[in-house]
Amino acid sequence: MMRSKLMNLVPRAVATTSRQMSTATKLTTVQVDDKTGIATLTMNRPPVNGLNLELLRDIHQSIEEIEGNKSRGLILTSSNPTIFSAGLDIFEMYKPDKERIRAFWTALQDVWLALYGSSVPTAAAINGHSPAGGCLLATSCEYRVMLPKYTIGLNETKLGIVAPKWFMSTFESVLPRRLAERALNQGRMFTTEEALAVGLVDEVANSKEEAIAKCAQFIGTFAKVNPLARALTKQQLRAEELKQLEDERVQDLEKFIFFVNQPAVQKGLGIYLESLKKKATK
Ligand SMILES: CCCCCCCCCCC/C=C/C(=O)SCCNC(=O)CCNC(=O)[C@H](O)C(C)(C)COP(=O)(O)OP(=O)(O)OC[C@H]1O[C@@H](n2cnc3c(N)ncnc32)[C@H](O)[C@@H]1OP(=O)(O)O
């Protein structure tokens, strides 16, 4: 998979305007800045960018599109002014449809493999809350810029669920092992300020525009680096985690299906959904 992506890494001429590359799907848009050649992938699924089957498929398609069109980099962000992504759409896991839940988890695996394994430089402009699956997306990128007063983290244990190994290894690729272990066990959500202090995010910006500009600046640091050498270096550094999921995706899917169908897990998800609804009516 990575080898064919590498074939796309040839220099290209740049123009001066920005163009909408993809509106084929409604849940993501891809805008390429023709001056920098950097693509911004925006998630757009109100109200909270909950990662359901359709959004995951659109994100995957957009990443493939960006890989294919020789963009110089990928910036992931959200159209919601206060939420990057609320993580997995819990309705996909609560009283699930047998076929759909398999497609859903497979789509999540596809997104992670494509984003974590992307041959282009990746950055997340985290313009809002980013729990669980939202944090997975952000930490799959190489660089993170976050707006103040939001939260980010893997809170799965607080929901009575367990983050799969590849969520954990992505988290651990950003945070020191001891800190990652403690945060995962606690289901800890970090404020922007805390996330910056521990290195979960790289910079703080005061607006989405500034966050995107900082992400573009990061991607710009590779301008004078040979793209093939950079991509091969990234590939080698990330190969172990990618191979592990590629080799075990069927078992990973079966584990997820088994786990999510446990009565205790279903009960916990139901209670959690109720608590989210109650919060909305307060
Ligand atoms: C041995 C190993 C086995 C491994 C097996 C694997 C096991 C499974 C692993 C699964 C990993 C899971 C990953 C996840 O991502 S789970 C999702 C976690 N997400 C959250 O906990 C976030 C919950 N949401 C919030 O905290 C807030 O909503 C948020 C801060 C994001 C926004 O707050 P705000 O006040 O702006 O908005 P509301 O809370 O009022 O929400 C608006 C409406 O959206 C609904 N909502 C919110 N989040 C979700 C969600 N994740 N899924 C579905 N729906 C969600 C919320 O209920 C409101 O709905 P209503 O308007 O109808 O009330």
TrEMBL record:
Question: What pathway does the annotation place this protein in?
Answer: Lipid metabolism; fatty acid beta-oxidation
Q: Which reaction does it catalyse?
A: (3Z)-decenoyl-CoA = (2E)-decenoyl-CoA; (2E)-tetradecenoyl-CoA = (3Z)-tetradecenoyl-CoA; (3Z)-octenoyl-CoA = (2E)-octenoyl-CoA; (3Z)-dodecenoyl-CoA = (2E)-dodecenoyl-CoA
Q: Sorted alphabetically, which InterPro entries does this protein's record hold? A: ClpP/crotonase-like_dom_sf, Enoyl-CoA_hydra/iso
Q: Quick check: keyword Acetylation in the entry?
A: yes
- Keywords for this entry? Acetylation, Fatty acid metabolism, Isomerase, Lipid metabolism, Mitochondrion, Transit peptide
Could you tell me which Pfam families the record lists for this protein? Answer: ECH_1
Q: Which GO terms describe its biological process?
A: fatty acid beta-oxidation
Q: Name one GO cellular component term.
A: mitochondrial matrix
Cell compartment(s), UniProt: Mitochondrion matrix
Q: A GO molecular-function term, please?
A: delta(3)-delta(2)-enoyl-CoA isomerase activity
Q: Known SUPFAM superfamilies for this protein?
A: ClpP/crotonase
Q: Record keywords: Lipid metabolism included? A: yes
Q: How does it assemble?
A: Homotrimer.
What is the protein's known function? Key enzyme of fatty acid beta-oxidation. Able to isomerize both 3-cis (3Z) and 3-trans (3E) double bonds into the 2-trans (2E) form in a range of enoyl-CoA species, with a preference for (3Z)-enoyl-CoAs over (3E)-enoyl-CoAs. The catalytic efficiency of this enzyme is not affected by the fatty acyl chain length.
Protein name, per record: Enoyl-CoA delta isomerase 1, mitochondrial
Species of origin reads Drosophila albomicans
Source lineage: Eukaryota, Metazoa, Ecdysozoa, Arthropoda, Hexapoda
